[in-house]
Amino acid sequence: MDLVDLDEVIWTEPPEREEAGSPNVVGAVAFGAAMDELERLGWDAIRTHETALSTRLHERLRSIDGVSVLGPRARPGRRDDEDLAVATFTVDGLHHALVAARLSAEYGIGVRHGCFCAHPYLLRLLGVDSQGVAEARAAVRRGDRGMIPGAVRASCGLGTSTEDVDALVAALAELAEGRPAPVSYVQDRVTGDFWPEADAGGWRAADRPAGAACARG
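-> structure tokens emitted (217 positions)
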């Protein structure tokens, strides 16, 4: 699906719409192995780790001027151990897809962006009114996905360390402060994604500083 709101769904064009795929046999085996490992580690240890990451992630994101954390955790009084270590946010003045592209290319940090299969809920969190939805819908019908509203999501897990969270927070602080990009980015209007221009000014994505990533999710 390209865009979903409370009144209408715009379906992705074929062939992508019909790609159900083959049974995920490898995934089923991997899932079993993952469950064995989780049992070995113990759920108390896992919860302690995730609670620490969740607290660090949300508190530090909320401390950055220009970064808005979306969802229930934004309500005062909500305990830090009530949610998973996942945060959805926006950066003032920057398209969600551009934030994701810059985090990836310049800092080596992987995040997701878009509406995360929760279009109506996210549109409400973003404050997109009926006119905004109508404009996005019209753009998608023209083949332009660059106007689809969205946010950025960072997900932590067992493989995430506190240093990884700090790397994300430091990168977002620089973006929110207006740090200029070392290379121009261009948007693919068909997908809505941004990409750094190849070899612009002698800079390549491979030249980005080393940095760990919050796990995709």
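The chain has a mean pLDDT of 86.
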